[in-house]
Fold this sequence. Notes:
By secondary structure, the chain is α/β, with parallel strands linked by helices. The chain has helices spanning 10-22, 33-42, 59-69, 84-92, 105-117, 152-162, 171-178, 189-203; strands spanning 2-6, 26-30, 45-51, 53-54, 57-58, 74-79, 97-100, 127-129, 132-135, 140-143, 146-147, 169-170, 208-213, 217-222. It folds into 2 domains: 2-115, 3-Layer(aba) Sandwich (Rossmann fold); 127-222, Orthogonal Bundle (Arc Repressor Mutant, subunit A), CATH 1.10.10.10. It is 40% helix and 26% strand. Strands 2-1-3-6-7 form a 5-stranded parallel beta sheet, sandwiched between helices. A 4-stranded antiparallel beta sheet has the order 8-9-10-11, covered by helices on one side. Strands 12-14-13 form a 3-stranded antiparallel beta sheet. β13 (208-213) and β14 form a beta hairpin. It is elongated, with a radius of gyration of 18 Å. The model has no long low-confidence stretch (mean pLDDT 91). Residues 8-9, 51, 53-54 line the site of calcium ion.
Amino acid sequence: MRILIVEDEAELATLLAARLGAAGFVVDCLGDCADAFEAVLGAPYGLVLLDRRLPDGDGAALIPRLRAARPGLAVILLTALDQVAERVGGLDAGADDYLVKPFDMDELLARIRAALRRPGAAPSPPILCGQLSFDPAMRAVSVAGEALHLRRRELAILEVLIQRAGRVVPRERLLDAAFGCDDDITPASVETHISRLRRRLEASDAGVAIHAIRGVGYVVSTK
Ligand code: CA
């Protein structure tokens, strides 16, 4: 799952990116509305953390355009504006949730999980494939009831594959899901992570195989 942070306070943006990265999300940071809109048009973000006071306008005013560009996108507004009218205005603009700075990072993560559970943002029942179960809202993987902890990019790749189990997923789509805009990407990037993911699935007896479809992409299926 990719998250876009739109925040012009560099220190806070860096802190947020580190924390969300550690929580297993692939994160990009941008500092204004115009760049954020371009980014949402170009990459499959599942959620945007959006500051309101941005150099080129109010983040809340951007929400309708973001939603039009990517239906189902979850949006959480981050702001120092804590007046009731401002909160109501933010939610009326279409935000899924609203956090007033300064906020607790654990609370932010809980709100992100809640926003991703909302109808239209992400399907919520666990997806089963072989012995493997994937909970889309918690982004938790288990095999025969045992938690399987994957690295961030392995998780991002599995997330996309398992949600389309039995169907071929183009390599481009996996690249988009697993790598941020500033990451170094080589032609072997996806293969490397797929190989690791295969070993993890094999070692845990998940009963799931990832097949390469030459020149196209990958498909996950039961063994
Ligand atoms: Ca700001």
